[in-house]
Amino acid sequence: MNTESSVPLDIQQAFCPDTILKSPSLNFLENNKKASIKPIKMIEEQLYFLEKLKTLNSCVNDLLQKSQKKFKAKSEQLQDSKRVNLEINKRNALSAERDAMVKDLCDKLCDYKCKNSQIIASNQALNAKIEATIKINNELLAQKQIMLNEKAHKEDTLNKLEEENNITIIKLEDCNEKTEIHKTIIESHTSALNAYQKKRVEAYTEIKKLNNYLQELKGNIRVFCRIRPKLPADKNDIAKIDISERTITVYKGVKPSKFSFDRVFGPNDTIYEIFEEISQLVQNALDGYKVCIFAYGQTGSGKTYTMEGPSEEIKDRNSTGLIQKSVELMFTTTEKLKQIGWEYKFYASTIEIYNEQVRDLQNNRNVISTNSTAAINPTKIEISSYKDLIPILSKARKERAIAETECNINSSRSHFIFQLNIYGEKGDDMNEGILNLIDLAGSERIKVSKVEGDRLEEAKAINKSLSSLGDVIHALVKKDKHIPFRNSRLTLVLKHCLGGDGKTLMFVNISPFACNFKETVNSLVFAQKVNSCILN
């Protein structure tokens, strides 16, 4: 409650400090201090003022008493409020303390719940482990029982084994005595085997010498003749031809022409029979000699068939030619030679001589020599089995130069040389041999083949090289001091194989048809010149 609102306004103004200080009475009193005599009016005014002041003082006292009472009441209320506030503060403090305790208890309760959950989970895990342990324990007990049973069984078995062992020891002692006897026998057999191996090596060496001697007796230069069989598609008449093992007689009119060679094969003789005849010569290459086998004759007389077999891809080994059978013999023989310590490596190369150019058929017909003094170094491919030979021959066939002539629609226009380099090794002993299997280009008279242009130049080059080959072989047979190897690229390439201790075999292939009589006679005359053996 506001105390000022219960005091009259005039009293408030009268007792206002500014009013008191500015009142005339105070001024009078002040002036009265300076003067001793004042007017009565002024005294009356002062008395009046004093009365008012007294009244005012009484009012003030009443107001003061009321104010004191109110103040006292207010003070008591204030004290009560303070006590209430104090009580409230205490209660708030207690409430806060209680809330803190409640929160703490809640936190602890949560912790206890969490720990309780963990304990429950732990108990569950422990229970699971206990159950697993019980299960394992039961299994172990079962296994223990099994092991005890096995132990008892093994003890029984061990006892039996000990009995058997004692028996075995007795037998072993007996076996040891027999082993000593067998050891003595084995040592004796080993000594005999070593002696046999030594004799086998000596025998192989002797066989090599005898085989070479046999080939020399037969002649280092030999000529075989083969008559091509008639094929179902052939329509020409067969010429009259008589043959024996070493002679062939061809007839035209009343006068026969007779020729003699080292061997003559008729149209019914198989490639097996032919290869059987030359297999020892092929063996010479494995023994470290240089061997050349030629197929000579007019185009279409069966030269390529003799050397390679059919023109199509060969899938049946029975249809293969001399090249394939020679390589097959090499691998068959070297497998046997491995037993006495020989190891062999084979490297194959294929070249053709076309218009006096030497071409590498395994390197895209790359010309490797046109100079008579240049070394011939064709691509050499190592072969370790018969299968490795097939793609080499297939590529060579595709690359070889052929063309159509009057005598043959697929006439070979080049000399084809398959060369097999052979390297054998046994300790310090080494063999280096070369096997050349050569399919010569078709020999035919230019008038008969009716070739022109490039074919004419090819024919001239072929006939020149074949004539040079005949001259070289004839000079070798006569043992001339000068051998004309440089007269053609063919003889130059084969120089190292034809001369020295080289061995040469020529197949003269002839046609069985009467229409080819002149070419047949020309081929036989050429072959007989090489063989240096003419019978009239």
TrEMBL record:
Gene3D superfamilies recorded: Kinesin motor domain
Example of a GO biological process term: microtubule-based movement
A cellular component annotation (GO) from this entry: microtubule
Chain positions recorded as ATP binding sites: 297-304
A Pfam cross-reference name: Kinesin
The keyword Amino-acid biosynthesis appears for this protein: no
Residue ranges of every copy of the Kinesin motor domain listed in the record: 220-533
Keyword line: ATP-binding, Coiled coil, Microtubule, Motor protein, Nucleotide-binding
GO molecular function: ATP binding; microtubule binding; microtubule motor activity
Coiled coil: 144-220, 344-371
Family membership: Belongs to the TRAFAC class myosin-kinesin ATPase superfamily. Kinesin family.
Protein's name in the database: Kinesin motor domain-containing protein
Organism: Stentor coeruleus
